[in-house]
């Protein structure tokens, strides 16, 4: 992949969309406090045309962030609370047998909540594997199949799922195939003291900040097209490939990877790096991604696409520190 110089018209479109994303970031910062990195990564996920998994303790504004993004970007949004008794038909929809006035019987498809532009899958790991798998086709192919019939989803279509890392009773781990379909796993930490103080003052008064749309769904589709047209330097491509391949426990891998990695990232990790790096550059007003973007995205791209073995866990090695060491050794 070679780097080519964008045309003047393309640069103008980049700048126009970047300004709108800047407005969205500012508006989100007024309702979600102390989570600037989370806001950037979530917007980058949407701009890249991908799906995001937000992992954090209760009360860290995961739901508020997602609903605010839907309002800001002008997307139709629906929320599904995932529970152990949730069935695939509750998400996808189902066919019902109806009888007309003339006595003719026929099946009619009733769309489920997945037929929207932004689906919030709240506490996704509380649903059974059967229900979780109902999202696989939709997330990858942008359509669902019910009773042998194909039903296309709206465009754009995104899933932003939330997961609570604390309460593990009554939960079902997401299968690797589904985790791989999330462009980024975004871990949400507690806000710092100043941000929490600001949040306390802004959210317990008589008025709260109002969210108004700064983009339309057509603007978002244009942004997603621009991301794929953005040039990416050969040095960035090589850094992505070097990092992803270094995380796989193959015969020629480094000793630490062989000893501690149970399974490593597949080719979708490289694709995620490329798209997310370019979308980060777009929303920040830069015309091309850099090596710093790759370093910044290493955790969100890799932490759900690889797993450490029992030996690593017994030695107190966690996935994020291991990824930091990979980055330091890769480039």
From TrEMBL:
SMART domains xrefs: AAA
Domain AAA+ ATPase residues, every copy: 48-192
Any Pfam family matching the protein: AAA_lid_2
Alphabetized PANTHER family for the sequence: MAGNESIUM-CHELATASE SUBUNIT CHLD (PTHR42759:SF1), MOXR FAMILY PROTEIN (PTHR42759)
Protein name: MoxR family ATPase
Protein species of origin: Hyphococcus lacteus
Lineage of producing organism: Bacteria, Pseudomonadati, Pseudomonadota, Alphaproteobacteria, Parvularculales
């Amino acid at each position: 992949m070679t780097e080519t110089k964008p045309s003047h018209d393309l640069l103008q479109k980049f700048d126009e969309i970047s300004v709108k994303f800047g407005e969205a970031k500012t508006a989100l910062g007024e309702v979600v406090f102390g989570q600037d990195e989370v806001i950037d990564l979530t917007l980058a996920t949407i701009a890249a045309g991908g799906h995001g998994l937000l992992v954090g303790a209760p009360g860290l504004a995961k739901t508020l962030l997602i609903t605010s993004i839907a309002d800001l970007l002008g997307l139709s949004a629906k929320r599904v609370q995932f529970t152990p008794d949730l069935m695939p038909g509750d998400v996808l929809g189902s066919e019902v047998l109806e009888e007309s006035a003339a006595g003719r019987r026929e099946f009619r498809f009733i769309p489920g909540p997945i037929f929207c532009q932004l689906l919030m899958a709240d506490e996704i790991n509380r649903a059974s594997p059967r229900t979780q798998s109902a999202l696989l086709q939709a997330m990858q192919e942008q359509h669902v199949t019910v009773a042998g019939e194909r039903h296309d989803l709206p465009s754009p279509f995104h899933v932003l799922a939330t997961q609570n890392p604390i309460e593990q009773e009554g939960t079902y781990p997401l299968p690797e195939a589904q985790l791989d379909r999330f462009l980024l796993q975004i871990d949400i930490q507690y806000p710092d003291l100043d941000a929490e103080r600001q949040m306390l003052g802004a959210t317990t008064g008589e008025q709260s900040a109002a969210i108004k749309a700064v983009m339309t769904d057509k603007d978002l589709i244009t942004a997603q097209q621009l991301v794929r047209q953005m040039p990416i330097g050969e040095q960035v491509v090589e850094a992505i490939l070097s990092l992803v391949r270094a995380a796989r426990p193959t015969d020629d891998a480094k000793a630490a990877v062989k000893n501690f990695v149970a399974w490593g990232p597949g080719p979708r990790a490289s694709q995620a790096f490329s798209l997310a790096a370019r979308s980060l550059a777009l929303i920040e007003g830069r015309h091309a991604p850099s090596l710093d973007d790759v370093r910044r995205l290493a955790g969100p791209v890799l932490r759900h696409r690889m797993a450490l073995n029992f030996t690593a866990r017994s030695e107190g090695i966690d996935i994020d520190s291991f990824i930091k060491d990979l980055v330091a050794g890769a480039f």
